[in-house]
Amino acid sequence: xxxxxxxxxxxxxxxxxxxxxxxxxxxxxxxxxxxxxxxxxxxxxxxxxxxxxxxxxxxxxxxxxxxxxxxxxxxxxxxxxxxxxxxxxxxxxxxxxxxxxxxxxxxxxxxxxxxxxxxxxxxxxxxxxxxxxxxxxxxxxxxxxxxxxxxxxxxxxxxxxxxxxxxxxxxxxxxxxxxxxxxxxxxxxxxxxxxxxxxxxxxxxxxxxxxxxxxxxxxxxxxxxxxxxxxxxxxxxxxxxxxxxxxxxxxxxxxxxxxxxxxxxxxxxxxxxxxxxxxxxxxxxxxxxxxxxxxxxxxxxxxxxxx
Amino acid sequence: xxxxxxxxxxxxxxxxxxxxxxxxxxxxxxxxxxxxxxxxxxxxxxxxxxxxxxxxxxxxxxxxxxxxxxxxxxxxxxxxxxxxxxxxxxxxxxxxxxxxxxxxxxxxxxxxxxxxxxxxxxxxxxxxxxxxxxxxxxxxxxxxxxxxxxxxxxxxxxxxxxxxxxxxxxxxxxxxxxxxxxxxxxxxxxxxxxxxxxxxxxxxxxxxxxxxxxxxxxxxxxxxxxxxxxxxxxxxxxxxxxxxxxxxxxxxxxxxxxxxxxxxxxxxxxxxxxxxxxxxxxxxxxxxxxxxxxxxxxxxxxxxxxxxxxxxxxxxxxx
Lengths: 307, 319
Known about the structure:
The complex is a heterodimer.
Chain A: H1 2-16, H2 23-32, H3 35-52, H4 54-61, H5 96-132, H6 134-149, H7 152-163, H8 167-177, H9 180-193, H10 197-204, H11 209-245, H12 257-266, H13 273-300
Helix pairs in contact in A: 2-13, 3-5, 3-13, 4-5, 5-6, 5-8, 5-9, 5-11, 7-8, 9-11, 10-11, 11-12, 11-13, 12-13
Chain B: H1 2-29, H2 34-39, H3 47-56, H4 63-74, H5 89-124, H6 129-143, H7 146-160, H8 179-213, H9 216-223, H10 228-240, H11 242-265, H12 271-281, H13 284-312
Helix pairs in contact in B: 1-13, 5-6, 5-8, 5-11, 5-12, 5-13, 6-8, 7-8, 7-11, 8-10, 8-11, 9-10, 11-12, 11-13, 12-13
């Protein structure tokens, strides 16, 4: 009888066994159907690819380098022949399209690395503020309020003007300024999560505070942090380009989308296309990053779907 | 109410303290000696003169002492003399405050005047072209680099079409009360500065309005036979606007920050442009005054936001 019941149960169970869909596979499933997000993601991937491949493209496709001057062909209008002048040439005859790809390397590097730094700081401080509460929380909150009360661009400008940082230092500086948004989000989530049963259970079996924070609370906040990070990469690229445009971020001869506009702005009477293309690249990259962020949010948490 | 206002005012003190420490440390820890820069190229400057100047500006004291000396003057509004203009730094900034406030408030007005109706219309006519414009614009408005938009506007509107002037507040030689001329000058910078806010407000208000019009009391208002217009403007919109007060504080931050870049693009003689020029010239007193003034404006705007929020939503005071 007992054996028979067991067999019966097994018979019913068998067809039900299938790999359970996890958070990410579910998200991927709905992302694939979101054409706008997929297209935006493809554009971001393409821009990254073109920037990383910039030296190869310069050598084999455009047959020039990012600093090769040609004083006989300055302010060249966009033309198909030679391919190096696809998007025109600048005030010393350098290929605009090649410099655009090289500029992308710098802008994207600053964007992604600074975003990673602010993500790390933001998550750690957010977890601490939300988990320990009390004094720790007061201190962190005070610091966030203070940092948020200094207009970001003013802070970046005085730091850049006085310290004249190189690209790597600038990336670190931006990373250590932008973390407040992530911290606020993680702090709020941690406040709620630390009261849940699974946290109490973990504490009961003797898990340390850091273990609870990193192994039990963090995984619950992580998905939406990726969304915020995608959006922050865009915001950081915008800030870096404004700073470089003002002559304080990435400084020539290293091309960045922002500093390519500094010179172009003085020559716009002769070559308006030199203004158009770097700005369009910034716009396109940031727009697609924002769209990916929005799409990712909808996919990860359908409840938040913007109507 | 007053208790809340006073408590909120007291909260601003540690924030301002933190800002002053950050600003002070950044300027003092920066490499490069302001005195050497100041005397650079001057003839007949001896080492003693440099030491003398350093003592005169108090730069030979320990950092903590320097901070206390500096902050005790700052609270009395004395940021010291500009190293370039030899005039009080704060006074120089206040001369340029008018231009910045003019630009920021014009932009704020545009944001509200365009953003709010756009958002409400989008919510009331879901799926219409207004709705689509608001949704697309809500993302695009944030992704456009302001300085690039400004440059493109100058190329297109000032250079090619010759419709509007590209820089300054006033045509040189015109009377300072020539209002039409001033308006022609402010249109482009104000719109460029307002763009992100218009995108933000319209998207925000669209969501809020959609939330509110699906609530029970709106259905009740409809059910008791009120005109559509009364329901929307008297009942729904009032509540949809409450969270806008919160958005206002954050957007003022964007305005103050954005103003610096936009002022630079349109050669608008405001606080941002002046602070930027000071930063490039390492004019320390002006840099510090500029950042402190911009940050204080921001702290004040957050304060006003919280107080306004407490007025429109009395529940907040209990907290």
